[in-house]
């Protein structure tokens, strides 16, 4: 076997590794409803890959593009919800939405996907989420809301500015079920987020 120069060797190793992993050697961003959705993101030193993305519509109005990122792709909703690995739900607004409407939709999704007894136990973290969402004010077309999930809870950011955390693993799982639960906000969006 002939030695290969350092640069070519590294490039060849990358292509071989990507091929063996079953991934394309060069990932491509997606376009969803005119919004560029990056194929990869970095969160807290972890590389996150796009699991899936789709459009949230309400009464035929396109509200936002949702993109789910994880450390590894999965089409198993329960595995994604229950994972202790970093995950990000990115919502990019397709129209102006006041934070109360956004929060109301999240709270409705929590009620639809959480047993009543568990929901009652999650009242304090749900109230904390409402306060964080209120800090966003009116989200304008193109604004980005990031929900970063980890083993300890969820961090809320608006346009890259961290607004605060909700430290409750149980609440983080309940919040992710808004999109990935048995009664998701939108069945077609759940399917898209799972990469189907």
TrEMBL record:
GO MF annotations in UniProt: intramolecular lyase activity
Signal peptide region: 1-27
Domain of life: Bacteria
A Pfam match: Chalcone_3
Keyword field: Isomerase, Signal
InterPro entries attached to this UniProt entry: Chalcone_isomerase, Chalcone_isomerase_3-sand, Chalcone_isomerase_sf
Family matches, as PANTHER family: FATTY-ACID-BINDING PROTEIN 3, CHLOROPLASTIC
Entry protein name: Chalcone isomerase family protein
Organism: Achromobacter marplatensis
């Amino acid at each position: 076997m002939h030695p290969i120069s350092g640069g070519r060797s590294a490039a060849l190793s990358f292509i071989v590794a990507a091929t063996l992993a079953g991934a394309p050697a060069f990932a491509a961003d997606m376009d969803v409803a005119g919004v560029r959705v990056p194929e990869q993101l970095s969160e807290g030193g972890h590389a996150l890959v796009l699991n899936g993305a789709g459009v949230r519509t309400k009464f035929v109005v396109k509200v936002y593009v949702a993109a789910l990122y994880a450390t590894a792709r999965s089409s198993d909703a329960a595995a994604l919800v229950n994972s202790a690995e970093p995950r990000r739900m990115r919502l990019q607004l397709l129209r102006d939405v006041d934070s109360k409407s956004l929060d109301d939709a999240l709270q409705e999704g929590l009620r639809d996907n959480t047993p009543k007894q568990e929901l009652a136990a999650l009242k304090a973290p749900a109230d904390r989420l409402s306060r964080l969402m209120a800090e966003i004010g009116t989200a304008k077309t193109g604004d980005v809301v990031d929900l970063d999930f980890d083993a300890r809870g969820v961090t809320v950011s608006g346009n890259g500015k961290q607004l605060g955390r909700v430290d409750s693993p149980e609440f983080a799982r309940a919040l992710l079920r808004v999109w990935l639960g048995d009664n998701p906000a939108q069945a077609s969006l759940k399917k898209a987020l799972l990469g189907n």
